[in-house]
Amino acid sequence: MAQKIIELKHVSKSFGDNVIIEDLSLYINKGEFVTILGPSGCGKSTTLRMVAGFEIPDKGEILLNGQDITKLPPYKRPINTVFQRYALFPHLDVYDNVAFGLKLKKIPNEKKPGKLRKLTPEEIDEKVINALKIVDLEDFENRDISTLSGGQQQRVAIARAIVMEPEILLLDEPLGALDLKMRKDMQLELKEMHKKLGITFIYVTHDQEEALTMSDTIVVMRDGEIQQIGRPNEIYDEPANAFVADFIGESNIYTGTFMGKRKVKFLNATFECVDDFSIGEKVDVVVRPEDIDIVALDKGILNAKIDSRVFKGVHYQYILLNGKAEIEVQSTDKYNVGDTVGIYIEPELIHIMKKDVTTNIFDGYIDKNNKVCFGDGVFECDVTQLYNGSHIDEDGYLITSNGEQIDLTDVDVEVNINFNDITLTDNEEDGMVYGKVISSIYKGDHYQVIVRTNENEEDFIIDTEYTYNENDLVGIIIDSSKIKMKLKVANNGK
User: Fold this and answer.
1) How far, in Å, CA of 118 to CA of 102, rounded?
2) Is 184 exposed, middle or buried (0-12, 13-18, 19+ CB in 10 A)?
3) Distance of alpha carbon 349 from alpha carbon 384, whole angstroms
4) Which domains does the chain show, CATH number per domain?
5) How many other C-beta atoms can be found within 10 angstroms of the C-beta atom of residue 448?
6) DSSP strand E in 129-268: where?
7) b/e string for 208-234 if b means 16 or more Cβ within 10 A?
8) Cα–Cα dist 154/176, whole Å
9) Engineering a disulfide at 362: which of 53, 87, 98, 415 sits with its beta carbon 3.0 to 4.6 angstroms away?
10) Cβ contact 132:98 at 8 Å
11) Nearest to 46, CA basis, from 27, 30, 24, 29
């Protein structure tokens, strides 16, 4: 039975007003190679630093082998960290860099119970040589650090960490400074080191290939929250939501409608599938490019035109057009650009996910001018939709169908806006509110963008045909006629 070595329970961490981690719970089993994966700024390094003891959670607790270490200083934890910047001592050779921590370490004195002693030179020498063997640097003891390649320096940093015999080794994007070939080589070496050592590795990266190559378990994070935990093949084949599908590997992601009897409609065609949802429910559909077959026109479920072809060494990458929608396909067969072909997808290769949200919903209130305040902005609106048959009199009061006069000032409402009823502008000053793009996912014929406002960090979800990058500053424009409202339950009957 797997044994938990580290557990985070309802952990939160903020820096000033900036919430980095919010109510995160996670456990890691002894001996696992676990990768925390996510985009820059998602909180993965902060999570690692809390495990190491470099940061203290604002809330929650961290357990090591069942014992609370939340406030235990780093030097008292059986945990070592390898950083992207190797932090080696340039004035020391390889041997002394690796031996540095051992020379400071104290262990129980066998001859004097209750006392501590330093390691002998012979003990230090044995441990250093063994560590250098594990990282394939056993003949480099006397080399100057400045004469080593980036990959060799990284191995020295790892040797310096493992020589202290930690229970957990933390690796914070350790391969980020290496070139592509060296990084791929080190991925395999790290996996082999993990097998040799048998200790727990917790690895942080934004590189999906690293995570898929090395990990026993992947933890996908976004915006300070865990999106999915699973084995690499589970994360790839069964993503929990559109973000995970988009972040892990190449994906075709479409908005679909469940038609019942294990049928889903997307790309204007109805496909057999193996999932069950409510009839008429809007869903996200994910199909990997390698799971789509190009077939003869009379064999396909739908037809599409080949728009581009790129040779990738082991396969061709095609972009097909079905109307305005793009379909990415990987195939070893060669077709010509401009050909119209059939598309077929096996039912079990269509992955359907429940949509997290289907429309923008905000808590708002009506101000003294009968405008609605929500999402860090003040917007024109039609308040008469709150009461059927009502109208506004000349003094600005709402008159119900039975003649009752209502002052709507400070009345709480629920605001509803469709994704495609919001327009973005590149000049944030032209918007009714402005914010930063935190996510952009391509949905075949449009992008689904999330914009977070600057003041109170309210999120707007927008469907747009235009491309936006993360961290772009944009303005948000909403047509007042597209704003739908209803009274909050507490205000009913006012």
Assistant:
1) 8
2) middle
3) 48
4) 4-237 (3.40.50.300), 250-354 (2.40.50.140), 360-491 (2.40.50.140)
5) 20
6) 168-172, 200-205, 217-222, 225-230, 252-258, 263-266
7) bebbbebbbbbbbbbbbebbbbbebee
8) 10
9) 415
10) yes
11) 24
Pick from 60, 75, 70, 62: nearest CA to 12: 60
Beta-bridge mates of residue 286: 253, 351
For residue 380, the tally of other CB atoms under 10 A from its CB is 14
Residue 392: CB atoms within 10 Å: 14
Q: What share of the chain is helix, strand, coil (3-state, %, to 5)?
A: 25, 40, 40
Contact 59, 12 (CB under 8 A): yes
Q: Are strands 398-399 and 79-83 parallel, antiparallel or unpaired?
A: unpaired
10-residue mean pLDDT profile of the chain (494 residues): values are: 91 92 95 94 94 96 96 93 83 93 87 87 93 89 90 88 92 81 84 90 93 95 95 94 92 94 94 92 95 94 96 94 95 95 96 91 95 95 94 91 93 96 92 93 94 92 94 94 88 45
Whose CA is closest to 468, among 428, 438, 427?
Answer: 438
Tokens 């129980």 belong to residue = 108
Report pTM: 0.85
Whole-number Å distance between alpha carbons of 329 and 310:
11
Check residue 31 and give its pLDDT.
95
Encoded tokens for 136:
């394939």
Give the residue among 387, 378, 379, 433 at the shortest CA–CA distance from 408.
387
Tokens of 375: 């999402």
Distance CA 373, CA 379 (A): 6
Q: How far is CA 459 from the centre of its chain?
A: 16
Contact 367, 354 (CB under 8 A): no
Report the candidate in 313, 340, 314, 310 with the shortest Cα–Cα distance to residue 328: 310
C-alpha distances in Å from residue 235, one per residue of 37, 188, 245, 388, 428: 11, 20, 8, 48, 36
Length in residues, the chain: 494
